[in-house]
Design goal:
mainly beta, Immunoglobulin-like, 2 domains, five-stranded antiparallel beta sheet
């Protein structure tokens, strides 16, 4: 029996040694090491914010099974691009107690600090992209602030995404306007140069200046989300074809959904593509 016990002890020690060697052969990934070190930093929660999100009692809603509550933080004055920090909750009830801080930042090395705007959105389809019917609330805060009260009180309508503005032609090109020209207004996501536009509007009976509305109702492909920084192109086309041709009058302007009073000035002629350019 003693020999059997010694043999079992030897096998156990050998097995543990093998496991230890196995662990040494499979070190933790560097990304995981960094994340663990970041969470272990005693100062990581110094600038955390916390508070309560409540739903305006005047709003009558029924939550869909897929609804999600999103909380975004952006530096004060920054409206576009990825948020500073974001957090999603799939299980919640109102009033809802929340916390947010450095651990929720989207880009490594970004500091959760200073003045910022905090937005909470009750999203009925659970998708972070806002859409009509979602309910939002906003409040201006400072990093480290506690006891924040954020009320969801703004129901997003389809009109909230419309871009509204005026198309006009520069004085030097007014005599170049064709009698039966067709106006096209395109929207492309910023940085996208090719492929179908995000949204398009065609105006055959043109009178300038032309006041336009471009929004989700004008997207070319069903299901496409009208969002994010974009570039608007307006073109008076001589032959009524959406493709640019020699002699068409064109202009560009940057915009975002919800922008108002956009001035889209047609200020140059398109020309034939020449080789070597």
């Amino acid at each position: 029996m003693k020999r059997l016990a010694l043999l079992l002890s030897f096998l156990i020690i050998l097995g543990l040694s093998g496991c230890d060697n196995g662990l040494k052969e499979h070190p933790l990934p560097e990304s995981l090491k960094k994340e663990l070190a970041r969470k272990a930093d005693p100062t990581i929660h110094n600038n955390d914010v916390s508070g309560t999100i409540a739903l305006d009692p005047k709003l009558k809603i029924s939550l869909s099974p897929s609804a999600g509550l999103f909380i975004f933080a952006r530096p004060d004055g920054v409206e576009a691009g990825p948020p500073l920090a974001v957090k999603r909750h799939g299980i919640f009830e109102f009033p809802f107690d929340f916390e947010m801080g450095q651990l929720n930042t989207m880009i490594e090395g970004t500091k959760f600090e200073g003045s910022m705007n905090l937005t909470a959105r009750l999203d009925q389809d659970g998708n972070r992209k806002s859409s009509p019917g979602d309910i939002e609330g906003k409040v201006k805060i400072t990093a480290g602030q506690k006891g924040i009260q954020l009320i969801l009180n703004n129901r997003i309508s389809g009109d909230a995404y419309n871009i509204v503005g005026t198309v006009n032609v520069s004085k030097v090109l007014q005599k170049k306007i064709p009698e039966n020209g067709t106006l096209f207004i395109f929207a492309r996501s910023e940085g996208v140069k090719r492929g179908p536009p995000l949204a398009v509007k065609r105006v055959a009976d043109l009178k300038l200046p032309y006041e336009f509305i471009l929004g989700p109702q004008d997207v070319m492909m069903p299901g496409t989300v009208f969002e994010g920084p974009m570039v608007l192109t307006a073109r008076i086309d001589i032959d009524g074809d959406a493709r640019a041709g020699p002699g068409d009058i064109e202009g560009f302007v940057s915009a975002q959904p919800g922008d108002r009073n956009i001035n889209l000035l047609l200020n140059h002629l398109t020309g034939p593509v020449t080789s070597g350019k």
